[in-house]
Amino acid sequence: MNISSSLPKKIEEIIRERKQIFQRELSNDDQHFVAQNENLLTDTVITLALGKNILLKGPTGSGKTKLSESLAAYFGQPVHSINCSVDLDAEAMLGFKTIVEIDGKSRIDFVEGPVIQAMKKGHLLYIDEINMAKPETLPILNGVLDYRRQITNPFTGEVVKAKPTFSVIAAVNEGYAGTAPLNEALKNRFVTFEIPYISGDVLLSVLKQESILQDERLLQQFVSLSADLMTLVESGRLPEEASSIRTLVDACDLALYIPAMRAVESAIAGKLDDDREKAAVMNAAETWFA
């Protein structure tokens, strides 16, 4: 993880303390996320060290999940995840009751969900696509996200107080079908960071790191293709997923074994439903690979 070496001394002390608590040091395998602006890494590390919640805003495939994984690894903290949808309910977040058999006798046990587990253990909680959840579902987390850092479990009556190392990282994809704007009360409980797509030399270094393709010339052509696709996205001719880093890595991997045009057709154009959008991708690819 390429982070500034100029972190304040107090923040470095907090990071060391957490690593001692969770007994895990950062390894080379944890260095996933590369930012277009290195200040992003420094600022998100400081925000988490101060015990604040983070909201990551950016398009699909821009690296929001990668950033959260890298932050967790940097602090040495395990992560509990929630993937939001319209079906998300309190049980999926907090846990549920179930009947278990012990020594031939039945009893009701409570299986703790990701929110309760993360709070009790002082781990990080990652909430993916938080704006996909129904607005009436999320207020249950208000006390978890503010200064109280606690919740009364409606299923057990237990008052759960989070450990000091507990924090929340949430991610949103704005403007997608099925999403709803976060209400002000919820947004005010987060420090917000924009996660843009990466480009140029930064993207090239990510492709070298993430893809099995290592041909410098071919990778550079994919970087150029990515720039063209982002231009098409910005003009409204393509959806954001067409310029996803994830799909670009898929295309690079395939291009190690098949022609680049076929790789682009399967990994990028093939994921789109509109024929005009598919044609726009392939026309852009012809510029570099025909």
UniProtKB/TrEMBL annotation:
Q: Keywords assigned by UniProt? A: ATP-binding, Nucleotide-binding
One example of the protein's molecular function in GO is:
ATP binding
In its keyword annotation, does this UniProt entry include Nucleotide-binding?
yes
**SUPFAM superfamilies reported in the protein's UniProt record:** P-loop containing nucleoside triphosphate hydrolases
Q: Does the keyword Methyltransferase apply?
A: no
- Show the coiled coil region(s): none
AAA+ ATPase domain span = 50-201
Q: Which PANTHER family match?
A: MAGNESIUM-CHELATASE SUBUNIT CHLD, MOXR FAMILY PROTEIN
By sequence similarity, the record places it as follows: Belongs to the CbbQ/NirQ/NorQ/GpvN family.
Q: What is this protein called?
A: AAA+ ATPase domain-containing protein
The root-end lineage is: Bacteria, Bacillati, Bacillota, Bacilli, Bacillales
